[in-house]
Amino acid sequence: MEAYMSSIGSKLQMLNTSDHASVVSMNLFVALLCGCIVIGHLLEETRWMNESITALTIGVCTGIVILLISGGKSSRLLVFSEDLFFIYLLPPIIFNAGFQVKKKQFFRNFMTIMLFGAVGTLICCAIITTGLEFRGNLMFESFPSAPLIMGNAWMNAQALLPYVFSLIDGAVQIFKKMDIGPLDIGDYLAIGAIFAATDSVCTLQVLSQDDTPLLYSLVFGEGVVNDATSVVLFNAIQSFDLTNINAVIAWEFVRNFLYLFITSTLLGVLTGLVSAYIIKKLYFGRHSTDREVALMILMAYLSYILAELFYLSGILTVFFCGIVMSHYTWHNVTESSRITTKHAFATLSFVAEIFIFLYVGMDALDIEKWKFVSDSPGTSVAVSSILLGLVMVGRAAFVFPLSFLSNLSKKSPNEKISFRQQFIIWWAGLMRGAVSMALAYNKFTSAGHTNLRANAIMITSTITVVLFSTVVFGLMTKPLISLLLPHPKDQSRSLSFSSDPTTPKSFTLPLLGEGQDSLDDLGGHEIPRPSSLRALLTTPAHTVHYYWRKFDNAFMRPMFGGRGFVPFVPGSPTERNPQNQWH
After folding, report:
1. Phi first, then psi: what are they for 430, rounded to 5°?
2. Among the three residues 12, 36, 70, which one is the final residue of a domain in this structure?
3. Are both 50 and 91 inside the same structural domain?
4. To the nearest 5 percent, what fractions of the chain are helix, strand and coil?
5. In this predicted structure, what is the pLDDT of residue 287?
6. Half-sphere exposure in the Cβ direction for 456 (13 Å, CA)
7. Domain ends where: 36, 70, 104?
8. How many CB atoms lie within 10 A of CB 548?
9. Cα dihedral 131→133→135→136 (10° resolution)
10. Residue 395 to residue 135: CA distance in whole angstroms
11. What is the DSSP string of 141-186?
12. Which range is the signal sequence, renumbered to this chain (predicted)?
């Protein structure tokens, strides 16, 4: 009996010790988060160092200190978990992106954004995969010569193609000789999806929505759609056995990808509409604004969890849920709840981003992964260099051709994407971040650990690419954009984009910036009905907006609420304010 009680006591003591260690780790991590916020604020005036680079740098420095204190055993306070990233950290970031997006700019350039974010991601993934698995020149020998009408920008790029292809071919041969380990076609496709995921946060912090609305909209929209496409593509690759691929398997793969993409979007829209309908009908604000704020936050998170439950893309679902909730639900709550939710979503997203980059910086020095490549550190560096080169080429292979296709549909020269803007879009997508890290961990580790040399090399290479691209390319972003866009204000006037009005017209807050915009308002001007089929084809964005606004005003907003469509009752979200009434 004594031995039994002694055993229980020792186990409880070990449990208490483990709990205390976790508390210590969380205390240090929270202190580091506070340090990142303070240092980021102090460096904000320079516009060189953003929160991402600051968090990465602090994470690396902290990892070095922990590595020295632990005698080279560990550099981390927490063990990386894909569940922590995908279930708790990513949803607030993506939802806030959809909630804060300037919808007029996003949907006005929707086709171009989808070209870059979806089609471009698939092209980039294919080039990275092909570059790693096959000889580079086999893929590019069949690459059709672009017609002369593509202009000087494409002709200049086309002249460089033979040199680029020869460099890729040489890199491929080096990659094959490095004897990394057993990787099949499924692994190469997964690597393509991992490194197709971009992180354009550094560029977005330099660009201005008001000075360069077209460019900001394209970079921002492509970044979100790109992340969603990469994750959907990665999940589709993981669910198929591609070792013996044939036409049937390829068709099933494409069908599964489209199914995930479409159903995820529809689920996000449906969840947003349900939240708008519930809040509009029940008027929680009459009794407690806390309830409607809590319901908005929980419904936003529910959309993501439902997508994961049904094996869909949570990123796409929560992004479009954010767009729908900002267009309908947000207008159905009281004024104080609007302020609260706006700040709450932005704050949660901000803290989650810092948390991710801080951890990535600390995990970069994890000794467990680096010991597998300690006998040949040059291998990891070489793999990282090849991957970075393929990323740059893969991105150039779709940005410039797809920009040309997009420009063909634009009649006004001011609406076309100039070569300098194309270069900035290309540059913005060179940086890799948390999504690439999470997908790499999901593929090549088990609960944050790896015991295979090939997997360790891919993890260390991913870490190297993320650190190098975020820090080096991120620091070069500000002077590069200043060089290419020396007079952004003049450019913004030439683009002929009217600034978006703020949605909450009854108040103005510094944190809200330009605030929410709505599809029902185009700079205060009425859009004429297209008078002919030619008018419909020559101005498709205005045409779609015209018919969408008629449908929205006639059916959607009377049912789900929105600006000016919430009936007034005592205690309801609608204030008796002429600015809130629909005309």
Report:
1. -80, -25
2. 70
3. no
4. 75, 0, 25
5. 75
6. 19
7. 70
8. 14
9. -10
10. 19
11. TTPPPPPGGGHHHHHHHHHHHHHHHHHHHHHHHHHHHT------HH
12. none
**Total domain count, the chain:** 2
* Same-domain check for residues 231 and 350: yes
Could you tell me the CA-to-CA distances from 91 to 85, 270, 317, 322, 560 in Å, in that order?
9, 17, 10, 10, 24
Helix (H) or strand (E) holding 540: helix 540-551
DSSP, collapsed to helix, strand or coil, labels residue 102 as coil
Q: Are residues 21 and 128 in the same domain?
A: no
Among residues 442, 465, 448, which one has the least CA distance to residue 369? 448
pLDDT of 422 reads 92
Cα 358 → chain centroid: 18
Same domain, 108 and 58: no
Cα–Cα distance for residue pair 66/76, rounded to 1 Å: 7
Give the Cα separation of 154 and 2 in Å (integer). Answer: 83
Closest CA to 263 of 302, 226, 221, 310: 310
Of 145, 132, 141, residue with least CA distance to 165: 141
Over residues 375-390, the pLDDT tens digits come to 666 777 888 888 898 8
The answer on 163 and 59 residing in a single domain is: no
Which of 366, 385, 370 shows the shortest CA–CA distance to 453?
Answer: 370
Q: In angstroms, rounded to a whole number, what is the distance separating the alpha carbons of residues 359 and 81?
A: 11
Closest CA relative to residue 492, chosen from 204, 105, 211: 211
| 149 is a domain residue | no
Question: In 3D, which of 552, 410, 328, 462 has the Cα closest to residue 112?
Answer: 410
**Which CATH number goes with the domain that contains 127?**
1.20.1530
What is the predicted pLDDT for the residue at 137?
Answer: 39
Q: Is the same domain home to 55 and 128?
A: no
How many whole angstroms separate alpha carbon 329 and alpha carbon 343?
A: 16
Cα dihedral 433, 74, 446, 373 in deg (nearest 10): 80
Instruction: Judge whether 504 lies within some domain.
Output: no
In a domain? residue 275: yes
Same domain for 51 and 95?
Answer: no
Q: What is the mean pLDDT of each run of 10 residues along the chain (583 residues)?
A: 57 57 83 89 71 85 84 69 81 90 81 89 86 49 40 48 50 59 77 88 73 84 87 83 74 85 93 93 79 92 93 89 93 90 93 87 77 71 87 91 88 82 91 86 72 81 89 85 68 39 36 39 47 51 72 88 64 46 38
Spatial neighbors of 337 by CB under 8 A, at least 6 apart, are: 285, 289, 292, 293, 296, 573
Q: The domain containing residue 1 runs over which residues?
A: 1-70
Pick from 295, 447, 285, 457: which is nearest to 372 by CA? 457
The answer on 164 and 54 residing in a single domain is no
Residue 77 sits at φ, ψ, to 5 deg, of -90, -30
What gap in Å lies between CA 415 and CA 425, rounded to an integer?
A: 15
In a domain, 520, yes or no: no
